[in-house]
Design brief:
29% of the residues lie in helices and 31% in strands. The protein is an alpha+beta fold. It folds into two domains: 34 residues; 127 residues, Immunoglobulin-like.
Length: 205
């Protein structure tokens, strides 16, 4: 009789270990998928952009355009009163294939004596201590500091220096980089086509 109990006990223990291992593997898989969500969304945006055609021999290779939403750089100026200077913002938004905001980049030009600034909205799930960066072409990247988060995302800010503004007006692409909760870097590219024309609409620019 005791040998039967030992036999069934061994089967029960083996079954318990097998179920526990399967549950742990499923949990690890779920956490890994959630941690890499932002990277997957970036890939979806990139896949929505058709690949650049191979140019005929003798022609220069064109740089593929980064994914973006039409109409490119939007200009929004407003004033709190008729006798006050305009407060202007140049912005562009990158969305995923599911129409969720992946990044909103805004260049804020407030009335003097306030200084221009960069404001970047990123989705929830970013690694806040790592901050974020904005880089124009191959120029040095500028560090952003996260100021606040709400249900719409997290917001990073940095001063907009005259040097970076000049880079934006002459540049081809600006990259926003940040890290997700798995500490993997995510880069979001935005083309600068039309930025100079948009900036020309800002008073005193």
């Amino acid at each position: 009789m005791s040998s039967h109990f030992m036999f069934f006990g061994s089967i029960s223990a083996a079954l318990f270990v097998s179920l526990a291992g399967a549950a742990a593997a499923q949990l690890d898989s779920s956490e890994s998928a959630q941690a890499n969500r932002l990277s997957s969304e970036t890939m979806l945006v990139a896949q929505a952009t058709p690949p650049a055609a191979t140019p005929p021999a003798g022609q220069a290779t064109q740089t593929p355009q980064a994914p973006r939403t039409a109409p490119g750089w939007a200009v929004n100026c407003k004033s709190g009163a008729k006798d006050k200077a305009l407060d202007c913002r140049l912005s562009q938004t990158v969305v995923t294939r599911n129409r969720q905001t992946l990044a909103n980049v805004t260049f804020h030009f407030p009335p003097s004596p306030e200084k221009p600034e960069i404001i970047v909205q990123l989705p929830l799930g970013v690694l806040l201590p790592a901050g974020a960066t904005v880089q124009v072409d191959e120029n040095p990247a500028q560090q952003l500091t996260f100021r606040a988060c709400n249900r719409n995302g997290c917001y990073g800010q940095a001063p907009l220096s005259p040097e970076v503004l000049a880079q934006l007006r002459k540049g081809k692409q600006v990259n926003v980089a940040f890290k997700n909760l798995a500490a993997n870097e995510v880069k979001v590219p935005l083309m600068l086509d039309g930025f100079g024309d948009a900036y020309a609409k800002v008073p005193s620019s």
